[in-house]
Automatic annotation (TrEMBL):
Gene3D superfamilies: membrane protein fhac: a member of the omp85/tpsb transporter family. This is POTRA domain-containing protein. The lineage of its organism: Bacteria, Pseudomonadati, Elusimicrobiota, Elusimicrobia, Elusimicrobiales.
Amino acid sequence: MKKLIFLFSLFVWAGAPVGAQPMQQVVGEVRASAARMSGKTLQKRFLLKPGDPFTPALFDKAQDDLHDLRVFKKLEFSTQEKNGKTDIFINAQDGYYIFPLAFASGGKKNAAALSLAAGNLFKQGESTFVFAGGSDDGFTAMAGLSLGDDFISLGFTKLNFDQRFYQNGWSNTFGVFSTTDDEDEYHSSLLGALHTRKEQLALTYMHRFSRTLRAFVRPEYVRYTYSPRALDNGSHNQITLGLRLSDDVRKGVNMGALSGYGLTDKKKSLQNLPRPRTGYAANVFYTAGGSWTGSDYEISKLGLEAAGLLEFKNRHMLVAEIRAQDAFKAPFSDRVLSSELLSGLGRYDRQIRGSRGAGAAVSFIYYLLRNETGLLSLAPFYELAYVYAGSRYRPHSGAGAALTYKLWRFPFPFGINYTRNLQDGSDTVGFVFGGKF
């Protein structure tokens, strides 16, 4: 009998999995309450659902997603483990905001703009905006709505400006709020100029399939007119399709800050991280046009973008970016611009236009000050792009730094930017207002 008991015990021991791990926790109930939103709406906007795997990392990301709605004055989370499941409780105090903003500038190029942003007016955690601005070179207007997994915007731009061409493939940058400093600084290398008129109407729709994956479509009406010499006058109507995969740890704009909303993760943001963390973003898009879109020209362009971010324990960040575009078929106006291949950190008054190109950039965001009032950062950067123009690749590179301050109770960071164009040795100092921080 003892022998049989011994054999049975040996059988049970041998059949047990070596190093067996406890059963993975899953999400049980998710209960939520808020002042304006319904509990069901808040549950829908929360990343974790009943039956999903539960880990501290996923729970932290789900909390960040709710914080990023920026419509809460209070947002509290608690959990309770029961029978291998983790119940989650969310207690929120949400409100709504309307934030108007206007600015004007003078000098060589007069400009003014007005924007109006609103959040949670319809108790869905949505955000809406309207923007309109103009200058001596034209005007632009845009309106957008972000609700749940969907974003839609409609924008119209009309430009009326001189496009100047210089030696070595350079031409001036253009836009409603672009600089015109090139006209005087590079007059000795000017080859010629064309008066340009551009009309553009663009509708963008984006859908989020998961926390990290999005897709968008953008049909555009575009028309160019050049004088006195015609280049590619006529219709350039086109459609762009794209995919975006991202897990970006940087904070976006908080339009409700002035009213005290969206600061629920302020204390957390001021604390050091337990360990470094990473973020990433990758985009791919394809633009096409032809007679089927009402275009007078065949258009075919492919673009790729990728960025990686390392956030250290003390919140400093190292960011690396790469971009590439190839205009397989494109008239002059739709070719690749070197400014589209750079990071956007530098300020330039000239750019290079060509059939294809690639660029890379690296920057380091160092926080000089982090306190209850705001964040002061210094961000040195270097960026380089090569564009194929005039039978060879031409470089466009720059280096500099941005010194910016972000008040917790104001939506945008502001400061100054210094950029040195490493090709022609020119220096640009500009005012920074807005962008990721």
